[in-house]
Amino acid sequence: MKIIDQSLLHILTSWQQELESVTTQQALEALRIAYLGRSGRINELMAQLKTLPLEEKRAFGPQVQELQQIITQSLSLKQNELTRQILEKELSTKKHFDVTAYNPSSLEKPSGSLHPYTHLIERIEDIFTSMGFSYAQGPEVETEWYNFEALNIPADHPARDMQDTFWLTTPGLLLRTHTSSVQIHTMKNQQPPLSIFTPGRVFRHEATDATHDFMFMQCEGLLIDKNISLTHLCSLLKVFMRTLFEKNDLSIRLRPSYFPFVEPGLEVDISCIFCKTGCALCKKTQWIEMGGSGLVHPATLKACGIDPTIYSGCAWGIGIERLAMLLYGINDIRLFHSGKIEFLKQF
Ligand code: DAH
What we know:
CATH architecture of the largest domain: 2-Layer Sandwich
Bound molecules: 3,4-dihydroxyphenylalanine
Structural class: alpha+beta
Strand order of the largest sheet: 1-4-5-9-8-7-6
Distance between the termini: 75 Å
Strand content: 15-25%
């Protein structure tokens, strides 16, 4: 060691003593600042050094440097030692850590839940895939052709008024008013036989109330093959509704109706799931309306390049909210998009 200067030796001894007594990271940091910090003792010595005559500088300078080195090295050793001590302490306390121990704070942590849409779509998916149907999707921003024309609804057709449309500023583009547009995408891209179901969001420029919303969900179904008839439609809907509502005695009723892309067009009702004699929910009729259906119109098949003399098909479109409201006892359709935590927490 080159240090012979008494004052430097004194500083070194006091550093060593103080370092010895340090037991925490904070105390070590305070000590580092006191010695190596900007106004610490080493910097004080450096400032002092500058004022010395050259001869003394030569003798004193290297000693100060050595002191600085010793302090820096012993500081980092001490740092390592403290870290090791902390780790050892943690390990010794965690050695008997019981992962199954009851932790009351974990119960208070907010946890997420699935949206009722997600619940229901998963159930719908299970039922249709078990019958050999595939999940199909289409764009929410549609062209007029996919949403209307290919579905046999030309521009001047009064049926366009049945679905008030959100038109985009780009001419010919709109927010799809129904998932029937996905039928067109599928039939244009795939050759029959084909069987799909298509849950998805649709948009209507309508005033809202407890049973109407400007944005809601539908699930379309489509089956195209040779010799498809109303029997297929009827039994598919029956199996679907019975499985979904877990009710083996549930009946299906098809009533004549009009949708330009099917012929005949039929309204689908199910027997009331709450009563046998008439209640408030079925408006004393014992039937609940579920959606539209029918046999795919030859004009629609043709628009998609499918020969209606060889193939026929059946299709249906059902409101997902309607199903969810019945299944989960929800009384206002607007709750689905309300983002209300109290509502969502129940699922
Ligand atoms: N797209 C119709 C609507 O939103 C519902 C519908 C009716 C779908 C008949 C169909 C169908 O597939 O065959 O009002």
